[in-house]
Amino acid sequence: HAADAHRTDLMTITRFVLNEQSKYPESKGDFTILLNNIVLGCKFVCSAVNKAGLAKLIGLAGETNVQGEEQKKLDVLSNEVFVKALISSGRTCILVSEEDEEATFVSPPMRGKYCVVFDPLDGSSNIDCGVSIGTIFGIYTMKGSDPTIEDVLQPGKDMLAAGYCMYGSSCMLVLSTGNGVNGFTLDPSLGEFILTHSDIKIPKKGKIYSVNEGNAKNWDVSTAKYVDNCKYPKDGSLPKSLRYVGSMVADVHRTLLYGGVFLYPADKKSPNGKLRVLYEVFPMSFLMEQAGGQAFTGKQRALELVPKKIHERSPIFLGSYDDIEEIKEIYAAEG
Ligand code: AHG
Ligand code: MN
Ligand code: MN
Ligand code: MN
């Protein structure tokens, strides 16, 4: 069969989302249009990331001082592309980006009902060595008829959709619209994201933990105890393996597919951890829960946080259901 060698019924991300939205009779295709523009941004960044890798190879021949600037350029470039693609969709009203200090309010002719929070280039410090990086996004619906900052300070559980794109050995977009998690791989020859990982479920328990252990000196007792349990299990189980890329998208993607935990805990130097609530913690927590895992801050369910500022940070522990359950028990006992 030709179909054995070549996929002939292509479930593109657009077709997939149109199918999903057709379940809602009131849907007018606005979400599909918004998502198409996000997808365009991801394809652009994917291509830019590949070109940056090539530029770096050339740079090695002598132009060393360009490296830092080039990397910065990619952060700024990705941000510009997403901001412009989102505004031109005509479906957004507020944009919050890691790279912009203030939220962007879209003016009336182009204004729509969706608020988008995003990290245009995640793990950007990894670009120079060709390690996987990504883009993270979350989508809310405006509450009233006029956009206010409160519209993007909603708890993560009220997100309409969340996702990330990983620029790795292949380019993958992982998306949830609140009805499970699906993964799409970019077919570069078609320029289309094709459904390759349908209904992703995270294993109930995993064999991997992922954390920047260089910060161990400053951890709280509970984090230290949990990580110690990963290495020296008290219940006779095998120790976990350590994997840490240092790009949240890559570390969370692996956690989603293989199971285990990813943590960026609080420490004495950063009492709120490092990762930002709106465009890192919330979208990834949303995806984890939708895949059957959990996300915990050390105090509460991550998606129940109500942010007060757009660039607020929070400690985060996310991953397999049973592994996060263990962390919650330690925090409940130790405080
Ligand atoms: P960004 O590149 O968007 O600023 O995000 C960096 C984040 C995240 O990707 C990763 O999980 C974390 O920084 C790694 O931090 P450490 O280098 O402190 O481990
Ligand atoms: Mn990031
Ligand atoms: Mn970033
Ligand atoms: Mn950054």
From TrEMBL:
Residue ranges occupied by any Fructose-1-6-bisphosphatase class 1 C-terminal domain in the UniProt entry: 202-331
Location, primary (coarse class): cytoplasm
One GO BP annotation of this record: gluconeogenesis
EC number: 3.1.3.11
Entry GO CC: cytosol
Segments forming domain Fructose-1-6-bisphosphatase class I N-terminal: 11-197
Transmembrane domains' residue ranges: none
UniProt cross-references to NCBIfam families, sorted A to Z: PRK09293.1-1, PRK09293.1-3
Record-stated family: Belongs to the FBPase class 1 family.
Protein name as it appears in the record: Fructose-1,6-bisphosphatase, cytosolic
Organism field: Platanthera zijinensis
Lineage: Eukaryota, Viridiplantae, Streptophyta, Embryophyta, Tracheophyta
